[in-house]
Structures are given as C-alpha cells and as structure tokens.
Design brief:
- By secondary structure, the protein is an all-alpha fold.
- It has one domain.
- It has eleven helices and no strands.
- The radius of gyration is 19 Å and the shape is globular.
- The model has no long low-confidence stretch (mean pLDDT 85).
Length: 253
C-alpha cells in the first residue's frame, strides 16, 4: 500500500509540473496536429504506388504519428531527470522514505497519461478529416503505445542518471532518434524502401509498433504484426525496466 500511495503522490507532483508549463502543453498538442495538416497531403500521391499499404492515407499516416508520440514522449523524459539532478531534487529524494520504485514509476505514469491525452486529440482531429475509428483496435493499440512509451521513458531516465550531463544525454537520445524513426517507417512506410532497409528494420522495436498500429487502426486483429509487436515489446520493456530500476536505486541509494 505504501508503494501505491507513493506512486500516486509522485504522479500528482509531475502532472502538476507539466500542467503549469503552458508552452510545453502548446507544443505537445500542436506538433502532431501540424504533422497531420502539413505532411498528410504530401502522401496522397503515394496511394496506389507499389509498396504503399492499402487503405486511405490517414489509415497509414495517423497510426505512425501515434507511434511517434509514444516514442518521443518516452525518450524525452530524461531531460527532466537531468534538471532534477542539477537542482538537487534527486539528492533530496535520497533522504525520503519514498519507495525507490515509486520515484521511478511516478513520472513515467504521468508522462503516459499526457501521451494518451495527446493521442486522443490526434485521433479526434483525424476523425474530422475522415479517419475511420475502430474502437477495439485503438484500445489494444493504446496498450502497445503505453508499453513502448514506458520502455523508452525508463531507458531515457536511466541513461540520464548514467550520463549526468545534458550534452552527453542529448547526444545519445538525438543520435538514436533519427535512425529508429526512419527505420520504423513512421512517416513513410518502410515497404517503400530497398530490401536492405526492410531487413534492418526488423531489428528496430519501434518498427513492430508501427506495423501493429496500422493493422489495429483498421481493425485487423488477426494480422501477424499484432502478436509480433507484443512478442517483441513486452519482454524488451521488462528488461529495460529492470535495468532502469537498478540504475535508479543506485542513484538514489
């Protein structure tokens, strides 16, 4: 019970911090909307092109944006950890009786909640432009998005605690962002790429989420991409959380 109470308190703390930052909220809401408004029209000419998935442009692009939001929301959480290290917040946590696991999970759950809010707005805007909503598919997709975002958040926080420097941390996160996003087919389907790129993409966990996102968005529950995404992301998330917990306990020992 104590751990659950600690998680709730820390969840509340980090949620208030985010809500008190109007610039962060504005950027968080506007960025995915700009992707839909400015990038979707560019894809209309790809419809019917060999290698481009069947269905409307929004059925292909909007699930990719949801995956992008999950990845970006999780991977950026380490920046606040660096700030807390520099301002002494982590040092203060060392003398509190709060559960170390709760200190790690509290901000992650807060970030997941905000990500789901952003995703809801994106789906609502996409619906206004003709995106067909499959509720059961989106509910299952929300589980996958939460798994990836939680995994990336744990990786980001642990990496921040290991590097302890904003420049080194930013170099690592920015260095992995571009290849992971491109090889996942977030903006353009990886099926349009050459064979060597399609092969390398299978070593990218984000690729499996994107493929499952597009299948679930159209209600295709029987697609192999769905069970493949769970088979890859669930154990990988468990491993990353275990590593992040050990790093965090050492940092706040």
């Amino acid at each position: 019970m104590k751990t659950i109470r600690d998680i709730g308190l820390l969840f509340h703390r980090y949620t208030l911090q985010m809500l008190r930052n109007p610039v962060w909220l504005f950027v968080g809401f506007s960025t995915p909307i700009l992707y839909l408004a400015l990038f979707t029209p560019l894809l209309k000419h790809f419809a019917g092109v060999p290698g481009f998935p069947k269905g409307s442009v929004l059925d292909v692009f909007l699930p990719g944006i949801l995956s992008l939001l999950a990845f970006a929301s999780g991977s950026s959480m380490g920046f606040s950890t660096i700030f807390e290290l520099q301002t002494g917040v982590i040092e203060r946590f060392r003398v509190t009786p709060a559960s170390r696991f709760a200190i790690l999970i509290g901000p992650i759950l807060s970030g997941l909640m905000m990500m789901m809010v952003f995703d809801t707005v994106v789906v609502a805007v996409g619906y206004g432009f003709g995106f067909q909503v499959h509720w059961l598919g989106l509910l299952l997709l929300a589980v996958l998005l939460g798994i990836l975002a939680g995994m990336m958040a744990a990786f980001s926080i642990a990496t921040a605690l290991v590097t302890k420097d904003i420049s080194s941390f930013a170099a690592i996160i920015n260095g992995i962002n571009l290849p992971l996003l491109l090889l996942a087919g977030v903006l353009l389907p990886i099926s349009l790429g050459p064979l060597w790129m399609r092969v390398i993409a299978h070593f990218n966990p984000l690729y499996y989420l994107v493929q499952a996102s597009r299948a679930l968005a159209v209600g295709s529950f029987s697609s192999p991409a769905v069970w493949q995404a769970f088979a890859v992301l669930v154990p990988l998330c468990a491993v990353v959380l275990l590593w992040a917990t050990r790093v965090f306990r050492k940092a706040v020992a």
